[in-house]
Model the fold of this input.
Amino acid sequence: DQQVKQNSPSLSVQEGRISILNCDYTNSMFDYFLWYKKYPAEGPTFLISISSIKDKNEDGRFTVFLNKSAKHLSLHIVPSQPGDSAVYFCAASAGTQGGSEKLVFGKGTKLTVNP
Amino acid sequence: EPEVTQTPSHQVTQMGQEVILRCVPISNHLYFYWYRQILGQKVEFLVSFYNNEISEKSEIFDDQFSVERPDGSNFTLKIRSTKLEDSAMYFCASKIWGRGEKLFFGSGTQLSVL
Done:
């Protein structure tokens, strides 16, 4: 049951270039999308999020784009830095009563930024 | 930045034994969660906890699992009789309130069931 799919297990880019990480989802009830970054031996760290009422959200070097008709979102990192090397998880949630929403995660994409 | 703290970082147990994984969420947070990640697989939701009761649980969270917030600061996950397939990294998480608030994760407890 892969409601959130990250089809690229890995991505390698050069320092200073753009990194684009992709995510697809199947559940039309999802209305909130998040990206988490994970280093080895650490828990996931929140990076950026977007509500379904928007199609773009930007935070410094990180921008998330949402295409609801295609059920697709992407994370752009510009410029990429070696410290960005980590596993990136796409996650989604559907509105539930009281705000205690669970996150459904993709399998992750391992980003390597080469100096 | 405040952190979610999990102990122990590694736990090895024999099949059939009980384990308790411990977490100290961020102090002013109201929602608490357990997630797990089996090696090579995605992070999976187990349970959410709010106002001293379970608010949602997944199919994974069967009768062998329980959660407790015994003293207002700790949040524990108990597995009564561990199985080999319970081997995974278990993450505790918390958030302050409401939709869209970011979820803070702990560093995880690696549980190995032998």
